[in-house]
Amino acid sequence: MKQEYREETSLIAKAKKGNLDAFGELLSSEEAKLFRVAFLLCGEREEARDLLQETFLAIWQALPRFSGRSSFYTYSYRILLNIHHKRRRKRRILLPFLEGIKVKTRLLSPAESFKKEEKRERVREAIAKLPSIFQEVILLCYLEELSYREIAERLGLKEGTIKSRLFKAKKLLRCHCERMK
User: Fold this and answer.
1) Last residue of a domain, one of 38, 68, 101
2) pLDDT number for residue 106
3) Domain housing 179
4) pTM, entire model
5) Are 2 and 8 in contact (CB under 8 A)?
6) Closest CA to 141 of 154, 122, 131, 128
7) Cβ atoms within 10 A of the Cβ of 86, count?
8) Is the pLDDT reported for residue 107 higher than 60?
9) Name one GO biological process term (predicted).
10) Cβ-count burial of 136 within 10 angstroms (0-12 exposed, 13-18 middle, 19+ buried)?
11) Are 84 and 31 part of one and the same domain?
């Protein structure tokens, strides 16, 4: 773990000086995990890819301000969430104008497709309504499939705090989903 940390620190220092190869190496080490988070948040591959590209650009622009108090992944993850939240606010403004547009469904029956997408959307909306401290633990636990210990290390918290936040997050999710039915 110490070797990985030293390598990451070295790559960050080089990237801060403008070394694009070092920056590319940093991104490639986290890209798959960040894409999974983006896909969970967006629900569509293309939209997740767009979110990821926007995140990479924002990371590059913000890199000089990266202090190293967290891991590069945690820093990147936070930027991705912030961009996603900004996009959602913009989308809410545009929604009334887009209501008439139909979206192609997959090879499921119309009823099955509708139910499946409706459920996904309810879960996404419920996760989006959670405070960020609960969103983080839900995504890290269920998307990243990290253990309580790993989540605690990544967020710099105690394992008991992680368990408590997950319990509260699941409770809030249940309430949100039940209200949306």
Assistant:
1) 101
2) 46
3) 104-181
4) 0.55
5) no
6) 154
7) 11
8) no
9) DNA-templated transcription initiation
10) buried
11) yes
- Last residue of one domain, picked from the residues 101, 124, 149: 101
Per-residue three-class SS string for 46-76: HHHHHHHHHHHHHHHHHHHHCCCCCCHHHHH
User: First vs last Cα of the chain: how many Å apart?
Assistant: 45
Distance, CA of 26 to CA of 12 (rounded, Å): 7
CB 54 within 8 A of CB 102: no
Instruction: Specify whether the CB–CB gap between 173 and 125 falls below 8 A.
Output: no
| pLDDT for the residue numbered 89 | 64
The conformation of residue 151, written as its DSSP 8-state character, comes to H
Q: Tell me the CA distances in angstroms from 88 to 91, 96, 124, 161, 163, one per residue in order.
A: 5, 14, 12, 28, 28
Predicted local distance difference test score (pLDDT) of residue 55: 93
pLDDT tens digits, one per residue of 17-67: 988 999 999 889 889 999 988 888 887 888 889 999 999 999 999 999 998
DSSP-derived secondary structure for 126-147:
HHHHS-HHHHHHHIIIIIS---
Structure tokens at 177: 């989903």
Instruction: Say whether both 175 and 112 belong to one domain.
Output: yes
Please give the average per-residue pLDDT across 106-134, as a whole number. 73
pLDDT at 93 over 50: no
